[in-house]
Each structure stands twice: as C-alpha cells, then as structure tokens.
Amino acid sequence: PTAIPADLVEGLNPPQRAAVEYRGDALLIIAGAGSGKTRVLTHRIASLIATHEAWPSQILAITFTNKAAAEMRERVGQLLGEAVEGMWISTFHSACVRILRREAEKFGYTQGFTIYDSADSKALIKRIVKALEAESMGVTVSTAQNRISGLKNELIDPDGFARQVDSTNPRDQLILEIYRQYQRQLERNKAFDFDDLIAQTVWLFRAYPEIAALYQRRFRHILVDEYQDTNHAQYALIRELTRGSEPQHVPADTRIRLAADGSIPPASLTVVGDSDQSIYAFRGADIRNITEFEKDFPGAETILLEQNYRSTQHILDAANAVIGNNFDRRPKNLWTAAGEGAKIVGYTGYSAHDEAQFVADEIHKLHDQGTNFNDMAVFYRTNAQTRALEEILIRSAVPYRLIGGTKFYERAEVKDIVAYLMSIANPADELSVRRIINSPKRGIGPSTETAISLFAQDNDITFREAMGRARELGLGPKVTNAILDLEHVLVEAEQSIDPARNTGAVPVSDMLAKLVERVGYIEKLRATNNPQDDARAENVEELINVAKEFDKQHPDGTLVDFLTEVALVAAADELDDESGAVSLMTLHTAKGLEYDAVWITGVEEELLPHKMSADEPGGLAEERRLFYVGITRARKILHLSLALTRTQYGESSVAMPSRFLQEIPEALIAWRQSPGIATSRGGERPRALNATGYGSGYGNGGGFGGRRAVGSRSYGDMPQGAGLKSEFKPTRGNRTFDNQITGAMKDNADLVLETGDRVKHTDFGEGTVRAVTGMKAKRIAEVEFDEVGRKKLLIKVAPLEKL
Ligand code: ATP
Ligand code: MG
C-alpha cells in the first residue's frame, strides 16, 4: 500500500482524519448531526482505493435511502473518478436484491423473482385473512401485516414463531397460520416482500455456507451509514458478511491479507451513526446495535466527532436544546465555527393554507435574494399535509418536487402495467397475472378466475399453465379465447426480449410499448369520457418513458433489472436531482440530507409529536429525535411553522403548538403571525404553550391534550369572544379562507395583464402588477399588494381580476 494522498485528508479535523486513516478491523464513528460522518465514510472509501489496499469491487457501502446512495456514489466519484463504478454503494435492500438475484437459482427460486411492495403483500394477506375469517377474531389485515413484518425483521420464520407462540392464545395461533400461508404463497409465486429481501439473504447465507463464503471473501471493507437505524435482520446480515471464512485458494492479485493459517480474515467494518437520530424504532430499528457495537466487535475503535460543519450556531443551539430533553442519552458537545447566523423564523398561521402561503412567500423571498430552489426544502410529519402545501405552491408558482411520496408507482394503472411486466418476467407469479387478467376488461370474471385457479390446483400446475390449457376448462368460446389470447400476449412479449430465443431481441421499452398497444390499455382509457382516464393514460405513457430512460442508461439492462429498479425506487425515493425545484418530503425522508433553507411545517401537538406516538413506549422521545433530525438539516435558515386550525379527515379542528417549540430558547426564534389572527401580540411565541395545566405530558387532565374540535371549547390564548370559527375568518371576503383556496380552481388563462395594471385579488386585496413572466398556462404575475406586499401568482389559477 502507498500513502494516503494528501487531498483525501486535507481539511479534515484530527478525529475525522484518524477515522480515515484507521486500519483495524472495526471502527465506530459516533457523532451528532452534521459533524462529517458521511463525509468521513466517503473519504475512507477513497483512501482505501487510492492506497491500493482494496479493489473497488471489495467495497460494500450501505446507506439508508436510494438518494443517499446516489449522493455517496457521486461524492466518491468526485474523489476517485471511474473506480467508483465497480463498488457496491447501495441500500440494504438493493444490495440484498443483487445477491438474491445472483443466487436465486441455487435455492430453487427464479432469477426473475418478483418483489412485492407493501400494497401487494397486503392484497395477499387480505385474501388469507378473509379465507380464515380472521377479522371476526380481531386479527385485521394490518395487524397481520405488521406482525409478520416485525417477525421477519427479527428473523423469525413461521417455524420459529410456532416454537415461541403461546398455544393458548387464539389470536397468535391465527397470526401463525396467516404467516405460514402467506410464506407458502410467496414461495409459490416466486416472490419476496420487502422484509424478505433482507431476511432471506441472511437465511440463504446460513443455509449455504459456500454461498456466504463468496461474499465474505468478496467484500473486504463494509461501511454502513446511519447505523442507528438498522434492525435486527440488517445487523445479522452484517454479522454474516464480516465472519471471515475457511482457508481457501486466493489468487495473488486480490489484495487480501490472509491470516497465518491461510484463512480469509473478517472484512473490516466501519459504522457511523448518531443515537439522537434514531427514528425507525417503529420498523424494528434497534439502538442496541450501536450501543453494543464495542461488545459485538471486540477490539473496535470508537471515534467521536464534535465539530458541526453544517449549521449556524442559532440552529445548532435550537437542536441541542431540543434533544437535551431526551433522557438516557450520552450528552454531546456539538459546536460550530460557522457563526451565529440568522434567527430561526417562527410563523403562526390560522390555517394550513395560510401556513403554506407563508412558506411560498418566504421561498420567493429567498430565491429573489439568490438562494437556488434546489437548496430549499420543506418538511412535514405526515403525507396528508402535502395537499395544502402543493395547492399553494402551485398557485404561487413555486417549482417543487415531492420526494418519496410521489405515489406514482402506487397508482392503479401503473401497478397494472408493472403487473404485466412481472407476469412476463416471472410466470409463476399468480398475484400479478390475476391482477391484470381482466384489466383492461376482456370478459374474464371472478368465477372464470376461480375456475382457472381450481384447475391449476387439481393438476398441480401454475395459474399461467392453467391459462394455457383454457380449452380444458369447459368455458364458453369467447372467454376461452380471451384467456388464450392474454397468455399468448405474455409469452410473445417474453420472447421478444429474450436474446436466447430471438436474435433480434428488443429493448424493454419497445416491448412495453408494443404490449400496451396490443392489449389496448391506453386506447380503452382514451375512449371513455372520464377526464381522470386521460390522466391515467398519461401515467401509463409516463411509465413507458421511464422504461425508455432506463434503456438509454442501461443498454444491456434486462426486464428483471428494470423491475428491480422500479421496485426499489418506488419504495424509497427518486433518483433524479438538480431539478431546480424546492424539495418536499417527510421528516423521515430528510435524514442525512442538508439544505441552505429549511421549513418544518405543522409543528403542532398531534402532528409533531404525532398522536400515534402517545401509545408507544418511547414514542415521544422518538418524535423529538425526528424534530432534531429536521432542525439539523438546515445550513443557514430554519423556519418553524404551525397553523391554529387544521382540517384532517374532513374535520376542522383547533391545533395546539407543539410542546417541542417550548424547548427552544425563546431568544433563538423571531416569531411572526398571520395578519388574519386577531390578537394584539405579534412577535412572541404562540401562547397556547404557556396555558396552565398543559404541556407536562401525555394524558394530562383526562386524555391527550392537543387538538380539539373547533368550537367545542375556547382554549388558552385562542382569540376570545365570539365562537372560534368566526374568529378565524379572514377580514376580507365572505367565505372562509380555506374555502377560497380549495374551492373550484378558476381558470384565468386568458386574463391579459401588463406591468402597471391595477388588480384585485380575493384574499390579498388590491395591488399593482410589477412584472409578468412565463408563457401561456405558466404565466406568472408579480404583484405589489397595497396591504400584504409583493407576491408571485400563477395567473391561470389566481383569484385575480383586473380593475
Ligand atoms: P448527518 O448526521 O446529518 O448525517 P453527517 O455527520 O453525516 O450528518 P456530513 O453530511 O458528512 O455530516 O457533513 C455535513 C456537512 O459538513 C457537509 O456539507 C460536509 O461536506 C461538511 N463537512 C464535514 N466535515 C468537514 C470538514 N472537515 N471541512 C469542511 N466541511 C466539512
Ligand atoms: Mg450523514
């Protein structure tokens, strides 16, 4: 090995440098947010390659989301260039998919096995729960799904569960039976669910030591980011991979240092994490993986990092103050040299839309001052909050993209087309083919489906094989032909992409486009008068575009590769970035990322902390860590906002400011509030926090303190006087603000505006047009309103008229 090139350690502080230079077997880096943990990982990887201590293929780096993996790959690429190509830098799930695909045939699965997402697995469990009439015993579909997922995360298979289950507990007995049947069906369909991807890889390694040895030998350096969020199955996977293996012949050029007896020593393991950012306990993450690392890996070195390079002092002070309220933690000494920075901006809106308008206005303000949209992000606790945000961002002409929650792959039509592809890749997958057997409608009803299924069972063949023998089912000629035709289409599609059977094999996207045309999927959608069907047709076209893009990026990519990408991207987040748009995401998705300006919205009781956390032991502490994660994403400017009323599940109710706000020293936040709120106190912390008898914990004074139905009682510092409802009406207009926003969108596309024109807006009153930019439906007016100042508005939808 040669020395580490200077540029890989320059600029690192001494403990960071020690972490890059460490050459022992096990290293734990534990440090607060923004202290350079991920940066140290990337530099460490680069240094191992640059010194010729390892080949790129000997590196396995694991991160938590696809986005984080893509970012790490890019950073290592910047340090090393092309060498990054041969490395496995991926999430746990994608690494396991790769291993399982390679090895599938050795354990009787097909290489093209299907990956079921949570909705697929729910559909399967639902059938079983129904057949067993389990709901009458109090076992719902989601109970069963959660229990099974939990068991898999603990690496407990049905037999293992049978051994520990209480045989006098009928509900557990039922869960066991559901679990057994579910696993049997997955196996029959040659499918894995998400939890399986990890658990089955561990089981594969345990059952086939010779397969495990391949990977134990291959990966010499394993590095795991966000280690605090690993669950037991993920931990076990790492244990398997770092076991070392029996003596074996090793070619001279492998850069593997053999032990004296010729055996392969365990891979070196580096894990980095922050127990204060552990936010996945609900998915089985086990903080003990980090706290007991030194016990698990004797001789491990522990390095602490204390300097934060990300945020300003004000932001860091707020973060430290909040997290300091959690017990049972190692206190940290996080400091920054970045200077005080701007104060945190607090905002109290009177409704979710008002809060969203604040976000939109601030985004435009910062953008005008030179911050790129890329460098801004808006976070929320629950996906339901996006509706109001999106409406207002669209109206205010803020370019944005939703990360993680796009739901594109959850749309029925997209799932249909993916099910076609799954049936083609994996003919054993009954769930997928049954999904599309009558979609689009081809006259194959449920009784026909049952007939095929029974025939398959009786003859011990697959559902697809039964379809191919439809003539033996004794059905009418029309339906028989429909079944045979579908089977034929699927086989034809499979052959068209198979180079073994077809010398002119076509790319995945060509096959897909032809398939969609052949079954008339888009055509049938376009033929209806339902405008929603047009949107559906567009989604199918979009999926074909995704396939085209895939073919372009992976000229040798197979259908299975494409489906893998779809499954994993759909599950986690999107890859594309740098889109010149503000990012919207949940607080969970935000982990590991950083932005110049951050908005945390809905900082209210029952949202953050989320009301579900009240029932979970440790739930409140986990919510606090989530808030801590959110705060520490901000580099320069942090906004915390809330609304005094929020509509959820169609019901409008009063929201209370989050108790977490009170944990931030008052001097760090500059509070503002909506002009629509009729109180005389501007510029101070929303007062509900100080209401007596409140804020000392859950269950205080009979039930959960927090959101209450509007009008049911006046509370704390809510405006006094007439009923709450009328207090929250805006001063202008005679409908409520919410109604104006959510009401039918007005189409103003033809409104001609010029600079200097006087206009009137339903919410903002009168103003003067300062600029008009953009074209057609995307025309934007910048208006200086007399009372509320400058705003950017999408003319097409703004409730605007020319005076
Ligand atoms: P998190 O806990 O949020 O995942 P982290 O500990 O992984 O944070 P990084 O993302 O690696 O922190 O680093 C935070 C920011 O600080 C990044 O922009 C990184 O480039 C920068 N940074 C880290 N160390 C240094 C350093 N020694 N000099 C300059 N910048 C640094
Ligand atoms: Mg990190």
From TrEMBL:
Region annotation Disordered: residue ranges?
715-739
CDD domains given in the database record = DEXQc_UvrD (cd17932), SF1_C_UvrD (cd18807)
> Which residues are in the UvrD-like helicase ATP-binding domain?
10-312
Drop me one GO molecular function for this one: hydrolase activity
For this protein, the record's Pfam families field holds: PcrA_UvrD_tudor, UvrD-helicase, UvrD_C
One GO cellular component term of this record is: cytosol
The record ties this protein, via SUPFAM superfamilies, to: P-loop containing nucleoside triphosphate hydrolases
Please report which protein family the annotation says this sequence is part of.
Answer: Belongs to the helicase family. UvrD subfamily.
Q: What is this protein called?
A: DNA 3'-5' helicase
Q: What is the scientific name of the source organism?
A: Gulosibacter chungangensis
